[in-house]
What we know:
Elements: E1 21-27, H1 30-45, E2 60-65, E3 72-77, H2 78-88, E4 95-98, E5 107-111, H3 119-129
Antiparallel strand pairs: 1-3, 1-4, 2-3, 2-5
Helix pairs in contact: 1-3
Amino acid sequence: MTAPLGLPDDVTRASAAPNEAYHRCGFPDRAQAAAFVAALSRFVRGPRGTPYRDAARGAVVWSRTRSDSDAVDLYLSDAALRATTEAFGAPSVLEVVDHSALPAECALLFTSTSPAWGMEQADEHLRGDSHE
């Protein structure tokens, strides 16, 4: 039996705000990306994460595993970036793109309604993005 992901029913690009900006943060491999997502999910679902759980404008993370390496790009919504900064300090942002400019290979990884994940759960969700 599989556990529900806690993601919205409509995980298409239309499910997010059309003009939302996303902040690309690069990770050298899936393990580091999974560790980050697990920590962020626990922060957002914890007591200090309340401001980032708004259903309409809460924390959202899209992921893309690069085809030319083991690296993973995570695209953080404004709320996810603010949560990251509050919890861990400002991340290194490689670029900012509009929602409509997210790469076609991106998969919705985490939303503010997702449960808190451990590293293994986050890695499992990232593997779903990697087309292995």
